[in-house]
Amino acid sequence: MKSNESVKDYRWGYLYVVTAAVMWGLSGSSAKFLFNSGITPYQLVQLRLTISTGLLFLWLLIRHRSLLKIDRKDILYFVLFGTVGMAGVQFTYLFTISKIKVAAAILLQYLAPSFIAIHSVVFMRDKLSPVTIMALVGATFGCYLVVGAYNLEILSMNIIGIISGILSAITFAWYSVHGEYGMRRYNPWTVLFFALFFGALVWNVLHPPLEAFMHDYSRVQWVWILYIGILGTLVPFGLYLEGINLIRSTRASITATLEPITAGIISYIFLNEIMEAAQITGGAIIIASIICLQLNQEQDEKAPGIIRARNHTDE
After folding, report:
1. What gap in Å lies between CA 307 and CA 131, rounded to an integer?
2. What is the pLDDT of residues 124-151, one digit of tens each?
3. pLDDT at 87
4. 246-260 as b/e, with b when 16 or more CB fall inside 10 Å?
5. CA-based Rg of the chain, rounded to a whole angstrom?
6. Does residue 167 belong to any structural domain of this protein?
């Protein structure tokens, strides 16, 4: 019975990450629209983090007040997780989008699974199974095809944008790995709140406090600002941490490569951008990699003698 419950939990974990990837896929194009309309990356990061922090605080205060408590000894961890992790991910990714094409920005950020795999092997002494390695390679190559990177003129791109994109991959990897560490002691929504809180705090220090809110935005701009703050940040980052809690950071980061597929579909529907055969093939490779990863994990869980350890602090 326990193995069936474990398999069910893993399926929920993949579903959470897939849902997060879909939401992120739309938020990248939304951010590009806002940049083209005059909003700067610095303003959008401040708007994004401040809105999501305030809404999550109100929700936890009303419904789950116990999740707002942490031990004093963990404050430093959350400060680093919020500044290096959350604020770092938000700024580097959005700054990259403002400098180079969205497709290229997505591709660079999804080098993160490779960094996570390297971290797991070098620092955690984990042994990656052949299936996991194949899924990692397949998802990365599929992402390369989906975003049409074979058409990108890398040498003519903005160098600062490329560097920022690589940093976005590193910070996303750091966020994933250290988020897993935090959830050994706390509920995923506690980890997310304090990541957002310290991220918003540092960004309202680096950028003039609440300056981004003091502009006269149009209704359309506010719609996309709120989308990015809620459905592009608060909800998907929460789901992603829930997913990490169930399937580990390596598998979650590979699964999240569904984001460029979502971006491609959105571009096809709303921007009439036709996907080439190579891009469709890349999407199929990503989906196949994720399916193989999930099936392999379920087989491991059903195998006799395997014990799954989960340290999860619920309210």
Report:
1. 20
2. 777 878 888 888 888 888 888 877 777 7
3. 92
4. bbbbbbbbbbbbbbb
5. 19
6. yes
**Distance separating alpha carbons of residues 162 and 157, to the nearest angstrom:** 7
Do 14 and 294 contact (CB within 8 A), yes or no? yes
Q: Is residue 313 part of a domain?
A: no
Share of the chain above pLDDT 70, in %: 86
pLDDT mean over 163-192: 90
pLDDT digits (tens, 9 = 90+) for 223-239: 999 999 999 999 999 99
Give yes or no for residue 315 having a pLDDT over 50.
no
Alpha helices in the chain (DSSP H): 2-36, 41-63, 75-80, 88-99, 102-109, 112-122, 130-146, 159-182, 188-206, 219-229, 235-255, 259-271, 277-302
Say whether 184 sits in a helix, a strand or coil.
Answer: coil
Domain that holds residue 74: 2-302
**pLDDT at 226 (0 to 100):** 95
Mean pLDDT score, 87-103: 85
Closest CA to 165 of 79, 233, 95: 95
Alpha helices in 64-158 (DSSP H): 75-80, 88-99, 102-109, 112-122, 130-146
Structure tokens of 188? 């995923």
Q: Is the pLDDT of residue 194 over 90?
A: yes
Beta-carbon contacts of residue 29 (< 8 Å; ≥ 6 apart):
102, 263, 266, 267
Q: Domain count for the chain, please give it.
A: 1
In a domain, 12, yes or no: yes
Nearest to 132 by CA among 290, 302, 9, 313: 290
Spatial distance between the Cα atoms of 225 and 51, rounded to a whole number of angstroms: 9
Domain-located, residue 88:
yes
d(CA 46, CA 61): 22
Sign of CA dihedral 278, 279, 284, 285: positive
Q: What is the average pLDDT across 43-63?
A: 95
